[in-house]
Amino acid sequence: MKKLGVLTSGGDAPGMNAAIRAVVRKAIYHNIEVFGIHNGFQGLIDGHIEQMDIGSVGDIIQRGGTILHSARCEAFVTDEGQSRGIEQMEKRGIEGLIVIGGDGSFRGAQALSEKGYPCIGIPGTIDNDIAGTDFTIGFDTALNTVIEAIDKIRDTASSHERTFIIEVMGRNAGDLALWAGLADGAESILIPEKQDAMEDIIDRLKRGQERGKKHSIIILAEGVGSAFDYADDIKRTADLETRVTVLGHIQRGGSPTASDRVLASRLGAEAVDLLQAGQAGKVAGIQNNQLVHHDISDILSKKHTIDMNMFQLSKELSI
Length: 319
Ligand code: ATP
Prior knowledge:
- By secondary structure, this protein is α/β, with parallel strands linked by helices.
- The protein contains 11 helices and 11 strands.
- The strands form 2 sheets. It has a 7-stranded mixed beta sheet with strand order 3-2-1-4-5-10-11, with helices on both faces.
- Helix 1 links the parallel strand 1 (3-8) and strand 2.
- The mean pLDDT is 95.
């Protein structure tokens, strides 16, 4: 392989820059030319492509977001859009593409691979909702951002003796809520994979109050529903006042943690090795701290599973 392309797609995630850097540097290390595609699949269709060198990725390993920018692109779901994308790469002699993003982005990569154009996916999303990898790039940073925010809210919860419901991101996955809840000693964790009955949530709040507990934290994954609806339900059912905080987009930004930088560096380099070895239609991941790769079709047909032992533990530790 002489030339490869790299793009970021879907929601941005801290560590995407570290992954871009690894792709560019590893490729150049192997004497492969690298082309950065701006604005995800939209930039691919539009030919917004430029060659990168060692210096293009200097001073970015510590930065959140993505220097290549990201976009959602409806046109790429069509046969015409995908063919146009392949055309743009072929006319520049680019022989393979690395796609950093979430499952939607992998569908785009799969479509190209099915058309005979080699693609490798790298999981980059704060949601940790991709099968075939224990962690996605950005999850650890988002988790630490959430924990820092909850620690601050806890100060107010404790000073004013209040119960807070904190809504965190994660789309349809509960990992961010579960890990944050365990790391922050939340009274209840509400995740899409295991919904607790309202009685259980209220029981926990009441038991806490009975033993003199002055404040409580409930963490709710956005995939479960709105924190405001839960606050209304708790008020209606048990006449308990709660305060709601929706953390929102602060969870997506910030400088990546060491863990995300290392993961991004390993996965970025692995993706280059896979393309160079003639692999196509794969997603690089990490399982039990070992680099792995799986067919994109397998990744897309399976659901990322949550560690139910962790969920059980969170209950046992917040009796
Ligand atoms: P996140 O998890 O952060 O949302 P994502 O990669 O899942 O990231 P999406 O918006 O679902 O984000 O997908 C990103 C882009 O991938 C879409 O805008 C579209 O260009 C492309 N894409 C999604 N689904 C398909 C598909 N079925 N075929 C081709 N391309 C697709």
